[in-house]
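Here is a typical protein record:
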Amino acid sequence: MDAWYVAIFAVSLASTAVGLFVGYQAYRGFRRHQSEAMQYLSAGLILLTAVTNTAAFVGSVLLQYGVIDAALQSPFTLGVRLLQFAGLLCIAYSLYRRP
């Protein structure tokens, strides 16, 4: 394996772990205070970090090893971007949600 791939994998894994940690902390805040805004913040953070990083990583591995056709790269990329957008929408909604 090339050193670049190892570095990319390590940073992706660390980003996913930190994103899950922050999302979990927001979820704990939601459970403690029953705040709908914290629920959306938690969902948005998990979508924006953990779900999209995992999907992008799995998709790139499947494409690289030919498990899925290269013609599906653009639709798959669009799907990952839509997940990121959904996460951002959840975070934005949580910031402007009035109790």
The chain has a mean pLDDT of 88.
